[in-house]
């Protein structure tokens, strides 16, 4: 399976979170923005159309009021009722009266009105033109106008706005026309019309700015464009199908491609004219803000992604680099190179981990040093054990010859009836057997005391008197463990060094034992000459060396087993926390204390029984060298 580095995994995780966050925010923002921009565009178009409708209605209502003056005038109604064979004078009189009473005030109020006319069904017609050359309209032109108006006006007399002019070709005109009744009849008898130049009305819409490729136009019920931002399109018909879409959409915005491109339309119907006022905007213009927003979102998202990627990489490095240093340090630790890792400036969990690692390395190095030193000491102890064993082997060289010799001496002593020689040789034989044949390092206190007893047999014969040892050991401590051949050398050391001037009656040797917490101790105390402070310090320094003695000299006794060797042999058996300590005062005596660990009584009794059975001599003599205190 492919191994992916932690830094790469962290970076991938950060990238997933970043991309997910950016995608969610971007999609939500774009969706909301698109909805709001679309609604804003529709509201803007609706407001434009509503304003255009409102101003158009206001403008047309002023013309409506001018036409009301004509509709309610009696002279106009009488003129409509005149027969077609009227006199020319009548026609002139009505023409003059109506001009003076109605038309001239209209010119004053609405100078933008280009023409005003009254036409009866019977052919009567009055034409008024506001400046310029008045066209000559005969009965045939009037008949044509009557036919046209009958086809294109509301029979009920409602105002109709037409893209039509009686003045012929020229500037585009808008005609506001209504049917009118006569004075004596309720039926419609003629028409009243006002013509206004389209450019006058278009001034209302020129201020509408919808941007590039967007425009405003007005279309009548027949689908003919009455006004367009492009003058070339004014008067032309709408593309096929667009008029139906405008009628069906009502006030809602719709989209169509009837004009060659996808465009949005929204329309409103004018009250007076039933014209549709329409705003048209290309879809590309509507979506342009969305495209800008989308581009901005991508740019911001890209910059954010790069910044987040940089920060994620930095953050991942801040985690993985210390871990790499830890791995490198551990690799060096495996090789035995104790490498400490420098702490970073910040303090966090990784810093705490590095601190723990450095502490571990420090402790491991200390433990290794301790183990190394302990190993060196163990090697030294092993060497000393081998040395002690070698010394023991030296004592075992041809022991049978020594035993046979001693037996021969005993036989001669018996023949010669010498009890002293027999007793000395028997004690010596036991001591030799105890020293050479016993391979146990740990022995009971009772066995060591027995060895001392036979030693005292020899000493008593040497000094020519019985010397009693004050034995203060409690009976329950006799089976406690101690090191073999340690008690007798200390007693012998007393006779060699403490009683140098000879043995007096006041001289005593006391052997005691006791317990202190986890320690078991056995002491040998005398009241001899003692040691000077410098001699005592020299002996203690030798004991602190924790080494077996190699040769003779002060502090050592016969048989190359001295005080230093007793101390070291106790350490070799029980450990360096145990051993021998010396207390002495010049002229007051010396006390030597052996300290050993406490052991289980059952194990002591078992080992003691086996040891005593092996140590019993063939000829045993207890002598009289003990005094139990």
Automatic annotation (TrEMBL):
Q: Zinc: present as a keyword of the record?
A: no
Which intervals hold domain HAMP? 317-369
Source species, domain of life: Bacteria
Q: Which PROSITE patterns match?
A: HAMP
* Pfam families listed in its UniProt record: dCache_1, HAMP, HATPase_c, His_kinase
Q: Which UniProt keywords apply?
A: ATP-binding, Cell membrane, Kinase, Membrane, Nucleotide-binding, Phosphoprotein, Transferase, Transmembrane, Transmembrane helix, Two-component regulatory system
Q: How does it sit in the membrane?
A: Multi-pass membrane protein
SMART domains the record matches:
HAMP (SM00304), HATPase_c (SM00387)
Q: Where are the stretches annotated Disordered?
A: 604-629
Q: What parts of the sequence cross the membrane?
A: 296-317
Q: Name one GO cellular component term.
A: plasma membrane
GO function terms (MF aspect): ATP binding; phosphorelay sensor kinase activity
- Quick check: keyword Phosphoprotein in the entry? yes
Q: From the Swiss-Prot or TrEMBL record, state where the protein is found.
A: Cell membrane
Protein name as it appears in the record: Sensor histidine kinase YesM
Query: Where does this protein come from, organism-wise?
Result: Paenibacillus albilobatus
**What is the gene name?**
yesM_5
């Amino acid at each position: 399976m492919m191994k992916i580095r932690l830094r790469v995994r962290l970076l991938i995780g950060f990238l997933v979170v970043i991309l997910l966050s950016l995608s969610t925010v971007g999609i939500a923002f774009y969706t909301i923005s698109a909805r709001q921009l679309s609604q804003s565009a529709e509201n803007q178009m609706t407001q434009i159309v509503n304003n255009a409708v409102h101003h158009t209605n206001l403008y047309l209502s002023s013309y409506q009021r001018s036409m009301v003056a004509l509709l309610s005038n009696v002279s106009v109604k009488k003129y409509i009722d005149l027969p077609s064979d009227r006199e020319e004078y009548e026609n002139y009189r009505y023409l003059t009266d109506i001009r003076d009473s109605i038309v001239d005030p209209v010119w004053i109020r609405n100078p933008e009105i280009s023409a005003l006319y009254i036409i009866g069904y019977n052919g009567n017609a009055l034409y008024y033109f506001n400046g310029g050359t008045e066209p000559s309209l005969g009965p045939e032109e009037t008949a044509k106008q009557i036919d046209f108006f009958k086809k294109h006006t509301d029979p009920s007399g409602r105002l109709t706005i037409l893209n039509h002019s009686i003045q012929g070709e020229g500037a585009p005109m808008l005609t506001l026309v209504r049917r009118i009744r006569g004075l004596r009849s309720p039926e419609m008898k003629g028409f009243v019309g006002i013509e206004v130049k389209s450019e006058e009305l278009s001034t209302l819409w020129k201020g509408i700015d919808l941007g590039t490729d967007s425009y405003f136009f007005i279309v009548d019920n027949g689908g003919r464009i009455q006004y367009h931002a492009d003058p070339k399109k004014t008067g032309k018909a709408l593309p096929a199908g667009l008029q139906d879409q405008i009628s069906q959409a009502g006030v809602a915005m719709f989209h169509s491609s009837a004009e060659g491109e996808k465009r949005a339309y929204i329309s409103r119907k004018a009250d007076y004219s039933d014209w549709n006022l329409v705003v048209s905007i290309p879809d590309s213009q509507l979506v342009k803000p969305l495209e800008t927003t989308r581009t901005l979102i991508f740019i911001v998202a890209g910059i954010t992604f790069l910044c987040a990627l940089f920060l994620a990489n930095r953050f991942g490095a801040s985690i993985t680099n210390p871990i790499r240093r830890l791995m490198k340090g551990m690799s060096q630790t495996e090789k035995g190179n104790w490498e400490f890792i420098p702490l970073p400036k910040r303090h966090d969990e990784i810093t705490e981990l590095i601190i723990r690692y450095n502490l571990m390395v420090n402790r491991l190095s200390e433990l290794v040093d301790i183990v190394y030193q302990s190993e060196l000491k163990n090697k030294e102890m092993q060497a000393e054990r081998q040395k002690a064993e070698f010394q023991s082997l030296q004592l075992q060289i041809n022991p049978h010859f020594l035993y046979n010799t001693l037996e021969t001496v005993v036989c001669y002593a018996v023949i010669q009836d010498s009890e002293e020689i027999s007793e000395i040789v028997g004690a010596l034989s036991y001591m030799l057997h105890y020293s050479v044949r016993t391979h146990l390092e740990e022995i009971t206190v009772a066995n060591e005391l027995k060895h001392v007893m036979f030693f005292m047999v020899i000493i008593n014969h040497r000094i020519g008197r019985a010397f009693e040892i004050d034995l203060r050991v409690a009976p329950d401590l006799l089976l406690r463990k101690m090191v073999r051949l340690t008690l007798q050398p200390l007693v012998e050391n007393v006779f060699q060094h403490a009683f140098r001037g000879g043995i007096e009656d006041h001289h005593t040797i006391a052997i005691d034992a006791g317990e202190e917490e986890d320690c078991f101790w056995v002491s040998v105390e005398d009241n001899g000459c003692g040691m000077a402070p410098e001699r005592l310090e020299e002996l203690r320094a030798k004991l602190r060396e924790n080494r077996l003695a190699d040769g003779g000299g002060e502090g050592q006794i016969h048989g190359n087993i001295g005080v230093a060797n007793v101390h070291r042999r106790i350490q070799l058996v029980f450990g360096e926390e145990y051993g021998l300590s010396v207390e002495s005062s010049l002229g007051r005596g010396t006390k030597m204390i052996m300290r050993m660990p406490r052991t289980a009584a059952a194990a002591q009794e078992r080992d003691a029984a086996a040891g005593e059975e092996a140590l019993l001599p063939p000829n045993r003599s207890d002598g009289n060298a003990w005094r139990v205190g």
